[in-house]
Amino acid sequence: MTKTDQLFIRACKARNPLTRVESVYRRFYLERNNPHPHITMILARLCDEFSPFTTSRFVSELSPENNWRYGDEDDSFELRCIQRLISKLRFTEATKLVGMTVPLAFRKK
Fold first, then answer.
1. Long-range CB contacts (within 8 A, 24+) of 32-40
2. What is the pLDDT of residue 67?
3. What is the pTM of this model?
4. Are the C-beta atoms of residues 52 and 43 closer than 8 Å to each other?
């Protein structure tokens, strides 16, 4: 797991995860007009690697019938994807995140 991957995972577990994920993206990647497709691919790769969920379940969660459950109806498909991927990483147990280092503030002295 790279340091950038760790920052994205920590951003997913923050208080305002979408803002933090976008901030991490801007810090390490080129500024784009619409960074959401790129963020979606980064978070999808992390979910594939660390979060146990199936693609069929993910697609069913993003179906139009479930829009009321996962965000505003005005949100774009890409934004709903990012929100669901953030949620999957946010609630992934720390034991499944192999290679994640403990932040300095929580290390024993």
1. 34/78, 36/76, 36/78, 36/79, 36/81, 36/82, 37/78, 39/82, 40/78, 40/81, 40/82, 40/85
2. 64
3. 0.82
4. no
Distance of alpha carbon 29 from alpha carbon 108, whole angstroms: 33
User: How far apart, in Å, do the first and last CA atoms of the chain sit?
Assistant: 25
Residue 23, amino acid? S
- For the stretch 41-72, pLDDT in tens is 999 899 888 887 777 777 777 776 666 665 56
Burial of 38 (0-12, 13-18, 19+ CB in 10 A): middle
